[in-house]
Amino acid sequence: MKFLISLQKNINEAIDSNELKQYRLVDDNSAVDNSCEIFENDKAKIYFFGKIYNYNKLKEAYTDVIDTPSLIVKIYQKLYYAGFKLLDGEFTFFIKDKENNKFLVYRDRHGAGSQVYFTNDTVAYNQKMLTKFNNVSLEPNFNNIALFLKHGYIPAPDTALKNVWKLPGGNVLEFKNNSFEYTELYGFNDFGLEKDKITISETEATQEFERLHKEALKSRVENSSSVQLLLSGGYDSGGNIAGLRDVYSGKAISYSIGFKDNPWSELPLAKLMSKVYDTSHYEYEIDGSEIENLPEIINNFGDPFNESGMMVNYTAMRLVNEKNEDGIILGGDGNDQHFGTAGRELALHYKYKKNGMQIAQKFVDSFAEMPIFNKDNKFFKIRFHNEKVLNILKNDSFGFRESQISKMLNTHIDISNPSYINALPNKFNSFNDLYNIHNYFGDIKQVINEVILFKASKLAVMYNNNLTFPYMSTELYNFLKTLPREVKLKGSIDDCASGKGKSKFLHKNYLYPKLPKEITERKKQGGFAPLPIFFKDTTRFNRIVDIILNSSLTKKYLNRAFVEDLLNNYRLHKDNAGYWFWYKQVQAFQIFNLITIVVWWESVIEKKDIKTLSDL
Q1: What is the dotted CATH code of the domain comprising 192-339+430-520?
Q2: HSE-up (13 A, CA, CB side) for residue 434
């Protein structure tokens, strides 16, 4: 899914012809790869990438529809932007509106379709292609790079380059009269305030959720001779395989990823489900050597990106590619976030704010930069949990602290008030209001759209795998957003605050009778990829240290002494098995962020052709 469109310049004049061997020119302004579908009538022209799963249902309302692109044009001409909200799938499309002399781009609601980077007059699928135009500079945006170092990603529309942006999922980008603007189709009011939630019984809600989930599965595997699944030991992938077997009896292939020497491995549970639901099963265990291919991964993302499960998705997509089986791939991504996460922290935040305890939290936070909080001790745990509750409406921050970033970067930065939090409501009147705010602005807009589905879909594209996300279906989304909190996160405020709230209640209620007891009755374990495994091998870690210290980024813009101290400290303690999991995870996440930003810098800013760490 590669594309390049310039509104101001002829493509042939802007790019060396050798760069276009992977494209086909469609007019003087556009070049696309062969995965693109094109439709044109007298009023509009569309370039479509991806898949629409409710095509057959939608086309019943329109005549003269011959394929997906022609359907979208018809919907656009009849319903304008509102019609895009009817579409269920993973896609990106471009429309040239001849009647109104404008050009628009739309990505699906959760941004699983091809990424869109743009400047004032050029659109491309990654940053490197934009730089083929002389008017696009390669000036780094250090404020946004600092956000990456803190969070592991840069929230859209910002990127790591000045005057280059990326289009958030569920937004229309419109170019007209030599300028652009984008329109969000899914605002918080559309998501539903607490007063707008429907009244429904647990039984009715469970039955409707089950029906819609199976409809989503059915629409995605329709006419398939075989189906592939990503399988772990949890409810989400388990729900896909259990639901699939109710609507499909053909060949199924499953894939599971584990970590070597991991006491919490879910591979045995995945193998059990494979046996119960009759799939051909493949497994792979990560040993840490996979980090060698980090440059290829980052090049595929475009912007710097790191997330704890990134290498799990990468190895899963690589395994699927190696086995060369047929059929669409079902992923369980995003379901946790649709139901709402962090119920305990939300309840504590609400209670502390209501009873005045936030003053104590802020007092503790004021001492958080003291050295004693940076060791593996009770003070680190206090800071870790305190910050999670106090800053529950801000993005998760497992990377560098702002004070560390200020010391590390030899340039002024200010990330104390990032743009993504500007849209947050200033107040909430109840615990349920707080839950809805976090569910929409945090779980969905950030974690699903910017992290989980972005990561999974881009790694699937990297290997030309056809990955889909049944829990992200449009009808499921529209149903879940109408439900009261108590059906999604069951329990009183006190129950949630004490950790006794039942997350994903509706989903578990649907699947409890269907899944093996080994799945439904086990205690929650880990669930996070242990990042220290990638730095366990001393020879590999020393090579990563050399790459970081010898990079042009470090030499020009980083405080070398700070970086050296950080790396040496990690080296001294990396093999200590007694450290708390989250202490080790945060330290490893920081090293991963450093090597990631170095790889991105050498590839994009220094324009080096690198596919593996050995190329650096």
Answers
A1: 3.40.50.620
A2: 22
